[in-house]
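Go through this fold for my students:
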Amino acid sequence: MTNVPCLYGHRPAPGRRGFRQACRPSWREDLCPIWIDLVVPPCSFRVFRDHDVAARRVVGHDGNDIPCFQAYDYRRLDVRSDDDEEYYLAVSYSESVSAWRLHDGRWLVHRRIELLGDEDAATTAMSIDERMPR
């Protein structure tokens, strides 16, 4: 396991990939204060990493071990060059999603998408879905 920081939280303790770890994500970070009492708070978290692409996912579970929070981020890296002599990796697409299960079973979803060169023009949206985002 690498020393990659946990999504929305502190670096996880060493452990098996995909299993509960000592990660306490800031699950309220993208949540407006008016929604706090309407969502099911997570008691434990599972952290999943993809070592082949720049992607991570955190799933929070309630006291009954049912998912009630999910956050993931994905970044697509492309090879770039300013002078056709030196090459480097640059983010060409970035997407992050935070989702919370409401007490009525629906999901409140916050999505942010950013394209290369459009750092100030990121698209953000809040929606309510019937299912947990995948």
Remarks:
- The two ends are 24 Å apart (CA to CA).
- Residues 1-22 have pLDDT under 50 and may be disordered.
- The chain has no helices and six strands.
- Residues 33-129 form one domain.
